[in-house]
Protein 1
Amino acid sequence: GIQVEQSPPDLILQEGANSTLRCNFSDSVNNLQWFHQNPWGQLINLFYIPSGTKQNGRLSATTVATERYSLLYISSSQTTDSGVYFCAVEETGNQFYFGTGTSLTVIP
Amino acid sequence: DGGITQSPKYLFRKEGQNVTLSCEQNLNHDAMYWYRQDPGQGLRLIYYSQIVNDFQKGDIAEGYSVSREKKESFPLTVTSAQKNPTAFYLCASSPDWRGWGQTPLATNEKLFFGSGTQLSVL
């Protein structure tokens, strides 16, 4: 199956700082989603972004499908942003493949 | 409210025992999935189903079984053949089913998750 790599694996930020998380994938994809997993294990949809740029409040994402990567930007980080961020891609056949995630800790 | 319900939240398995994890959705989604998450790891696909009465193996199907008799339900059985079952299990669903040769849906194709079941071995 398709390979998905996320970087960095761990990130510690001071509250108010900005950050960029990266997702590289090994082949063409039909879909790409970013998720936030909260401390209770729940995965929350952040963006559905197979291509282009989207923004939602302090979060934005850009996918450059031709170069096989996506970026998630977090601005003015807050402690509630802590958790694990996953990128998931779908090629054909309705199978979604996940990266190993970026664990974010925001310190007050 | 529409959503995906997983139960139980915590489950304990004895040696040699089969256990079944429940996943129900009322989102009218065609596709459903089971993922396994180990500590500090990403999600790995166990099984998925694109339509009722059909399911496919994912990357780590050995030791697991599923059924899809109803659109709303996709239970996962962890059999005694699964020697390392301790993990967090996540069920998901998607509104899109894309059969080979069909035009894919262009909008709002998303993957939605339940709240998970933590399975531990006694």
Protein 2
Amino acid sequence: KNQVEQSPQSLIILEGKNCTLQCNYTVSPFSNLRWYKQDTGRGPVSLTIMTFSENTKSNGRYTATLDADTKQSSLHITASQLSDSASYICVVCWTGFQKLVFGTGTRLLVSP
Amino acid sequence: NAGVTQTPKFQVLKTGQSMTLQCAQDMNHEYMSWYRQDPGMGLRLIHYSVGAGITDQGEVPNGYNVSRSTTEDFPLRLLSAAPSQTSVYFCASIRFSSEQNTEAFFGQGTRLTVV
């Protein structure tokens, strides 16, 4: 069964600190992996996209990594801000079937 | 830049009532889908459509109907609301394209409570 698992389920960090969120997937083959940010009461919005051939991609203070051999991705947030408090969802696109497989998300709280 | 417009944002229903959640997109995407999001369970696919006139069931379709008469609109109907349908519902319009371009665009969500 194609699955996407995220850890931790929730995380509390102090403002200004760094953190790393993990995503393990079994979807194969896959087209791409996206990290989405979902603010409370809003729909998810794409942060980064990783394809099979990419290892690292940055978007401001967000850096995503992908290891296609171990089927793991991570999202690193640098110098966290209060506005980073949100759920972060890992989504893998399943090639050929036009399907998206969603992780259950990591809920991040940045505390002042 | 409307993207995906989903209404209403909040709704309270009594058990047994019916209602329709509206979803419209202006990006000319063929693929649209409905998800429900419950605590600890992530987004679960209810129904999806790969184009006007074509719909199919997702993983949790019971109690919901959909139709797709136009590319733009994809309403979700609750036939007889039950407390188990209390959830947050998201409509998504998905661009399945080359590797770099596949992306889902979500509406703002509808928080539904069935009492």
